[in-house]
Amino acid sequence: MLAVMTVADQARTKSTYGLQWNRFRILRPEEDRATFRNRTALTADELAGRVVLDAGCGMGRYLRMAAELGPRIVVGMDLSEATRAATQLTSDLHTVAVVRGDLLRLPFAPGSFDHIYSIGVLDHTPDPRAAFLGLARLLKPGGRIAIWIYRKERPAVERIMDVHRAISRRLPLGLLLGLSKAAAPIGGLKRRLMGSRAWIVQRAGVALHLATIGVSMHPDPEVRVCDTLDWYAPGFLSRHTADEVRGWFRAAGLVEIEDLSALQTFFHEGQGHGINLAGRRPSEVSSA
Ligand SMILES: C[S@@+](CC[C@H](N)C(=O)[O-])C[C@H]1O[C@@H](n2cnc3c(N)ncnc32)[C@H](O)[C@@H]1O
After folding, report:
1. Can you tell me the mean pLDDT for 22-45?
2. Is there a smaller number of Cβ atoms within 10 Å at the N or the C end of the chain?
């Protein structure tokens, strides 16, 4: 029964992102650049001449950004038809290759990549830890991986999220898209209320937020619709603790584990808070 549910949820994740990333080709270069820098801490110096994997590239906004920093090759991989959008977005860049595939069945040889990054992807797989361990095996000695995934919230908030998504991920995608559009003004209202200096107004904003927890508060209405769909629609959306994710890094034998969220500057209020860690495969295997 569990296996049947997993297959159905995976199919739903695939159709969600096939629709989402071909419908919303939302490029916001200034914000995307800040997000890429914050969530990977990768620079042109580090990427120059390297072989890089964007694991779960979606429509390719960060793939394009990485390619512009001068790697030898950057591969974008995604489960869904989002690869069509990513291929179009990067068609003028000869150092980019886009492949369609599942992070849980990786089509690359171990030790293939100098850098791997994965932004908002592992939490949409049925087994984020296994997906992470598979990616870590793809690192060359000395190679580095950076990931961003959703953070686990307080138990009461987790329960609200679970109830909302238990319903929403079963609704037809077309209906959910319509509801996400209809909900966009609520995201704007939450933003204004929660930003108020008046305590009572701010509390009203928090109450509205709990009732509509996945409705995005992004300042740009089109991004708000896309982000709302992104939260309510996929088959899988797991949240994790920093300790749990650090455990994945240790289990993979990675060192120099860094908390990138500690350095983050937020581009706008209401941007998702997540677990954002990076780590490196040791350069030399000890003979001891
Ligand atoms: C929230 S989107 C993030 C896309 C991109 N990283 C970005 O931030 O723009 C999640 C992406 O993960 C992809 N994905 C989900 N499960 C996957 C899997 N098992 N293997 C590969 N990609 C997967 C989805 O198709 C989707 O494009």
Report:
1. 93
2. C
Q: Which residues touch 143 (CB under 8 Å, ≥6 apart)?
A: 111, 113, 114, 115, 116, 280, 281
What pLDDT, in 10s, does the model give residues 251-265? 999 999 999 987 766
- Give yes or no for a contact between 117 and 147, defined as CB atoms under 8 angstroms apart: yes
Q: What is residue 47's predicted lDDT score, i.e. its pLDDT?
A: 97
Mutate to test the pocket of ligand 1, among 22, 78, 173 (most ligand atoms within 8 A of CB): 78
Distance of alpha carbon 136 from alpha carbon 132, whole angstroms: 6
For the record, the structure tokens of 244 come out as 């749990």
Residue type, 76: G
Domain definitions of the chain by residue range: 2-152+238-280, 170-232
Protein residue with its CA nearest to atom 1 in ligand 1: 120
- Joined tokens for residue 110: 């171990």
Fold designation for 2-152+238-280: Rossmann fold (3.40.50)
CA-nearest residue, atom 8 of ligand 1: 119
pTM to 2 decimal places: 0.94
How far apart are the C-alpha atoms of 233 and 178, rounded to whole Å? Answer: 12
Choose one of 42, 79, 122, 223 to mutate for the ligand 1 pocket test, by most ligand atoms within 8 angstroms of C-beta.
79
